[in-house]
Amino acid sequence: MSTDPIDDTSCTGAQSIVRSLERVGADVVFGIPGGAILPLYDPLFDSTAVRHVLVRHEQGAGHAAEGYAQATGKVGVCMATSGPGATNLVTPIADAHMDSVPIVAITGQVPSASIGSDAFQEADI
């Protein structure tokens, strides 16, 4: 795990997230692509250090991340799109919290200008 600062001036937010995952040693991400999270998938695909595991449902991604963290001692990472994708992570996040299992849940979000306007798949999570 590196402690060098990330040069965020030359990368997108999505690239910064993937670089951060690489730096903390998160080598597996469980998720399912969807509209608002798609920009993260390009730098994730380009990463040689982080592998994506495609799941059939966001809740499965969260539980897989929790199981991975328990089995390996590393942080579990899951990804979902905005709105219903994000809300589908609530149960595994609560379960991980109750069992003190370290997971990181990354979700998409509607554009900043649309927050609070009942935009498509907007959820205040």
Distance between the termini: 29 Å
Count of discrete alpha- or pi-helical segments spanning 4 or more residues: 5
In the CATH scheme, the class would be Alpha Beta
Kindly report the CATH topology: Rossmann fold
Main sheet attributes: strand count, strand direction, barrel closure: 4 strands, parallel
Strand content: 5-15%
Determine the oligomeric state from the structure: single chain
Q: Judging from the principal axes of the Cα atoms, what is the shape?
A: globular
What's the structural domain tally? 1
Could you give a short description of this structure?
The chain has 125 residues and is of the alpha/beta class.
Please provide a written account of the structure.
- It is a single chain.
- By secondary structure, this protein is of the alpha/beta class.
- The chain has one domain (12-114): Thiamin diphosphate (ThDP)-binding fold, Pyr/PP domains (Rossmann fold, 3-Layer(aba) Sandwich), CATH 3.40.50.970.
- The protein contains 5 helices and 4 strands, in the order H-E-H-E-H-E-H-H-E.
- A 4-stranded parallel beta sheet has the order 2-1-3-4, covered by helices on one side.
- Strand 1, helix 2 and strand 2 form a beta-alpha-beta unit.
- Helix 1 (13-23) crosses helix 2.
- The longest helix is centred in the middle third of the chain and has 15 residues, at 58-72.
- The termini are far apart.
